[in-house]
């Protein structure tokens, strides 16, 4: 049964042995050789397919091109066979930390893979690129890879359940560095003390402010989790060489909790699996049907429903105002409560529009659909009737939707809200949605066939048909893959796709 680990700040004169530290408990979970349940294995396969799908769709986007060119500028390090880079030929390898970097950017660029929201935000699929990169480099088989991914998901989701980072304007990838390091530790079968040192170093090097997701959002949004994965690989390498890390990293008087989070009087209960307990946290996460911030998923579904029922709502002259009554997080992060004028700016970056629920709801209401590229196109954002309607959409925090957002009951937890549309003729339309259609409790929960369809749809512009089938065959046999097959677990772009977009030059 899950055991909450009490975590608080300790003064320097209060000796806290490492065995009592959160980083040590994380390491113990990573080192526990418990079997992976069949339904967890099945979901890991789904998420490996999901990651590859969104990566395939992003291969020709500028941040991904830049990250890939950086990675391929580095040779394979001496300790193994190297790792593959999404898009490049499978025989071309780079060192695992750079593969984690390039593939992490490709996975995150479109903001289109899985999510878990609780006290903090997360995309736990970000754990997969660094763990796969190390598996390829060292020659691990599919069973070991599955165990590593299960740990990465478990640790990140458990940290997200208990410790809020955004409240203190710390970026959410501070939970990813430790989880990826733990997952790599499981993959390699490392002892507890080694994983402990790696977790501490990974956390220490991946704490940064949330400005990367505020105001005019830059291309660093996609790079931040990739950086955390890269740091996790390097942290494991240092720990394996016997190097130590700041301790206690969470609980120390000058540690993360005391100075970056809730301060000297803080306390958290982090739920972690008990010894021998299976790692099942991945089953509490959920993927995206739409390429947008997760809190926008349900709103897109509600908007397209309203589009079908009331196509007249697409006309801004028919609308007096639209208010989305929703959770604190949605209102203040992607809603009008953020007080970011860029969220209403047609010239804003794609990354900014992805975090603007007024824009997203407007386009989905007018189009009855959402597309990962067309819906963000500059000509779409500048359409006069869209701009006019967009400026009539605001958000408002609703206490009940905030409560449901934070509920520990999965049957009650919700990420939607209630829309109130005041019509120009004095009429009013009220509707609501709790979870996205693709959510496990939604109207059309995602299953294996949906993940496969998502991959085929997103990959058809960049991969050849035979490559799509080759990857799907490998991914769906993940637990049985040999080490050589794990080294083929990548996607190779069709001839001419990558060369049509020259890579920028830099130092490397």
**CATH-defined superfamily of the largest domain:** 2-methylcitrate dehydratase PrpD
Q: In total, how many domains does the architecture comprise?
A: 2
The coarse overall form would be globular
User: What is the C-alpha radius of gyration, as a whole number of Å?
Assistant: 22 Å
Main beta-sheet annotation: 4 strands, mixed
Largest beta sheet: what is the strand line-up?
A: 4-3-5-6
Model regions low in confidence, pLDDT < 50 over at least 5 residues: none
Helix/strand-derived category reads alpha+beta
Portion in helices = 40-55%
- SSE ordering: EHHHHHHHHHHEHEHHHHHEHEEHHH
> What's the tally of helices?
20
Tell me what portion of residues adopts beta-strand conformation.
5-15%
Q: Quickly give the CATH architecture of the largest domain.
A: Orthogonal Bundle
Which class of the largest domain in CATH terms?
A: Mainly Alpha
Q: Tell me the number of strands.
A: 6
Termini separation: 49 Å
CATH fold descriptor of the largest domain: 2-methylcitrate dehydratase PrpD
Give the overall pLDDT as a whole number.
96
Domain MmgE/PrpD N-terminal: 21-267
Protein name: MmgE/PrpD family protein
Organism: Agromyces larvae
Domain MmgE/PrpD C-terminal: 290-477
Describe the protein's architecture and organization.
The protein has 508 residues and is α+β, with helices and mostly antiparallel strands. The chain has two domains: 3-284, 2-methylcitrate dehydratase PrpD (Orthogonal Bundle); 294-433, 60s Ribosomal Protein L30, Chain: A (2-Layer Sandwich), CATH 3.30.1330.120. The longest helix is centred in the N-terminal third of the chain and has 21 residues, at 142-162. The radius of gyration is 22 Å and the shape is globular. The chain has helices at residues 22-31, 38-57, 62-72, 96-108, 128-138, 142-162, 176-188, 192-204, 220-240, 256-260, 297-309, 328-334, 350-353, 357-367, 378-381, 384-390, 399-405, 448-459, 465-476, 483-486; strands at residues 3-8, 267-272, 319-326, 393-397, 417-423, 428-433. Strand 5 and strand 6 form a beta hairpin. Strands 4-3-5-6 form a four-stranded mixed beta sheet. It has a two-stranded antiparallel ribbon with strand order 1-2. It is built from 20 helices and six strands. 43% of the residues lie in helices and 7% in strands. This is MmgE/PrpD family protein. Residues 290-477 form the MmgE/PrpD C-terminal domain. Residues 21-267 form the MmgE/PrpD N-terminal domain. Belongs to the PrpD family. InterPro entries: MmgE/PrpD_sf, MmgE/PrpD_sf_1, MmgE/PrpD_sf_2, MmgE_PrpD, MmgE_PrpD_C, MmgE_PrpD_N.
């Amino acid at each position: 049964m899950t055991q909450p680990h009490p975590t608080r700040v300790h003064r320097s004169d209060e000796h806290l042995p490492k065995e009592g530290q959160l980083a040590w408990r994380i390491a113990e979970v990573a080192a526990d050789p418990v079997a992976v349940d069949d339904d967890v294995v099945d979901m890991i396969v789904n998420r490996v397919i999901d990651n590859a799908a969104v990566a395939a769709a992003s291969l020709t986007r500028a941040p991904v091109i830049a990250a890939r060119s950086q990675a391929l500028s580095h040779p394979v390090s001496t300790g193994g066979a190297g790792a593959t880079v999404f898009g490049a030929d499978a025989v071309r390898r780079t060192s695992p930390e750079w593969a984690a970097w390039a593939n992490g950017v490709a996975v995150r660029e479109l903001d289109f893979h899985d999510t878990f929201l609780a006290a903090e935000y997360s995309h736990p699929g970000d754990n997969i690129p660094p763990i796969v990169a190390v598996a390829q480099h060292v020659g691990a088989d599919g069973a070991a890879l599955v165990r590593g991914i299960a740990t990465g998901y478990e640790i990140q989701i458990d940290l997200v359940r208990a410790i809020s980072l955004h409240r203190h304007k710390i970026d959410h990838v501070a939970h990813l560095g430790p989880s990826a390091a733990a997952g790599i530790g499981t993959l390699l079968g490392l002892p507890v003390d080694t994983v402990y040192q790696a977790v501490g170093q990974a956390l220490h090097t991946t704490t940064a402010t949330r400005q990367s997701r505020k105001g005019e959002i830059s291309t660093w949004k996609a790079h931040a989790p990739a950086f955390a994965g890269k740091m996790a690989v390097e942290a494991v390498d240092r720990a394996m060489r016997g190097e130590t890390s700041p301790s206690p990293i969470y609980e120390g008087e000058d540690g993360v909790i005391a100075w970056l989070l809730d301060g000297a009087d803080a306390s958290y209960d982090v739920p972690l699996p008990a010894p021998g307990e299976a790692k099942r946290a991945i089953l509490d996460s959920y993927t995206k049907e739409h390429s947008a911030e997760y809190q926008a998923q349900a709103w897109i579904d509600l908007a397209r429903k309203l589009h079908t029922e009331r196509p007249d709502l697409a006309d801004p002259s028919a609308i007096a105002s639209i208010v989305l009554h929703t959770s604190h997080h949605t209102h203040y992060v992607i809603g009008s409560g953020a007080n970011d004028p860029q969220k209403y700016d047609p010239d804003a970056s794609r990354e900014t529009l992805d975090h603007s629920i007024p824009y997203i709801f407007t386009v989905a209401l007018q189009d009855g659909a959402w597309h990962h590229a067309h819906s963000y196109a500059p000509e779409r954002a500048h359409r006069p009737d869209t701009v006019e309607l967009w400026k009539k959409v605001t958000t408002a925090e609703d206490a009940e939707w905030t409560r449901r957002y934070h509920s520990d009951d999965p049957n009650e937890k919700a990420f939607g809200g209630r829309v109130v549309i005041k019509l120009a003729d004095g009429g009013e339309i009220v509707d609501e949605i709790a979870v996205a259609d693709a959510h496990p409790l939604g109207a059309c929960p995602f299953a294996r066939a949906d993940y496969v369809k998502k991959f085929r749809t997103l990959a058809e512009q960049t991969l050849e048909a035979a490559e799509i089938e080759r990857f799907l065959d490998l991914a769906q046999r993940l637990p049985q893959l040999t080490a050589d097959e794990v080294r083929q677990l990548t996607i190779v772009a069709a001839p001419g796709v990558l060369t049509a977009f020259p890579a920028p030059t830099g130092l490397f």
